[in-house]
Design brief:
It is a single chain. The protein is an alpha/beta fold. The chain has helices at about 15-25, 45-55, 105-120, 140-150, 155-160, 175-185, 210-220, and strands at about 5-10, 30-40, 60-65, 120-125, 165.
C-alpha cells in the first residue's frame, strides 16, 4: 500500500444507495475498491450500472464476482416468484418476498475477504434503515454484529494488525436525504439503476424499488434522470 493511502472495499450494486455510499467513501479520502456481486438477480441491468458507476467514481479496481444464489432461490429476485407492486411506502414494514436470504451477510463476508487481502480495514455498504423494504440485514444492530464478527473471524483482526470497520453512511437517512447527498457530491444519478423488473431496458415504475426511488426524488424536489 502506498504511503498514507487508505483503502476501502465498497459494495456497489449500481443502485442509488450503494452509489452514494461510494461517493461518500471517496469524499472521505478513501481509495475505493468496488465489489459487485452477480448473484443471479433478475434485475441484471444493475450490473452494467455498477460498471458505469465504478468508472465514473474512479474506483481503483472493480471486481464483479459471480455467485449463483438462484441455486437456493427463496426470493422474488432469485426465483420465479411474483414481485409486489404499487405498494404504499408506509406499508413496507413487513419482510417482503424480494428479501434474499442472508444476502448482506454473504456480500459483507466477500467484502471482508477482499479487504483483508488488500490490507484494508474499511468496508462501505449502502444499507438504509428508514426508507427501506423491511430487510432485517439493513438494521444498525445487524451491521454492528457483523463488525464484531469480522474482528473475531480474521487473521488480521486476531493478530491485531487490523480493526475492521463497517461504514453505513446512509443508514439513518431518508431516501430524499440520500438523493440530496448524492447531488451534493456531484454523482451522476443517470448512471444508477434501482428497478427490480425492467421493461425493455426501462424502469417498471411499480416495484418496491421504483416506488421508493420515486418517493426519494419527489420529496427531495429533484427530477429523476431515469424518469
Amino acid at each position: 500500500m502506498s504511503s498514507g493511502e487508505r483503502r476501502a472495499v465498497v459494495l456497489l450494486s449500481g443502485g442509488l444507495d450503494s452509489t452514494t455510499a461510494m461517493a461518500v467513501a471517496g469524499a472521505e479520502g478513501f481509495a475505493c475498491y468496488a465489489l459487485t456481486i452477480d448473484y443471479g438477480q433478475r434485475h441484471r441491468l444493475e450490473l452494467e450500472a455498477a460498471r458505469r458507476v465504478a468508472a465514473a467514481l474512479g474506483a481503483r479496481q472493480h471486481v464483479a464476482l459471480a455467485i449463483d444464489l438462484r441455486r437456493f432461490g427463496g426470493s422474488a429476485l432469485t426465483a420465479d416468484l411474483p414481485l409486489p407492486t404499487r405498494r404504499d411506502p408506509r406499508d413496507m414494514t413487513d419482510i417482503p418476498v424480494t428479501y434474499v436470504p442472508a444476502r448482506n451477510t454473504v456480500f459483507l463476508s466477500l467484502a471482508l475477504a477482499w479487504a483483508e487481502t488488500l490490507g484494508a480495514e474499511d468496508i462501505f455498504i449502502g444499507v438504509n434503515f428508514l426508507d427501506y423494504s423491511g430487510y432485517p440485514d439493513c438494521r444498525p444492530e445487524y451491521v454492528a454484529a457483523f463488525e464484531r464478527m469480522a474482528n473475531l473471524a480474521t487473521k488480521a483482526g486476531v493478530e491485531g494488525r487490523s480493526h475492521f470497520r463497517i461504514h453505513t453512511p446512509l443508514i439513518r437517512l431518508s431516501k430524499a436525504d440520500i438523493v440530496r447527498r448524492a447531488v451534493e457530491l456531484g454523482v451522476d444519478l443517470a448512471l444508477t439503476w434501482s428497478c427490480y423488473d425492467p421493461r425493455q431496458g426501462r424502469p417498471c415504475g411499480v416495484c418496491d424499488a421504483c416506488v421508493l426511488r420515486r418517493k426519494g426524488f419527489e420529496e427531495a424536489g429533484i427530477p429523476d434522470p431515469l424518469g
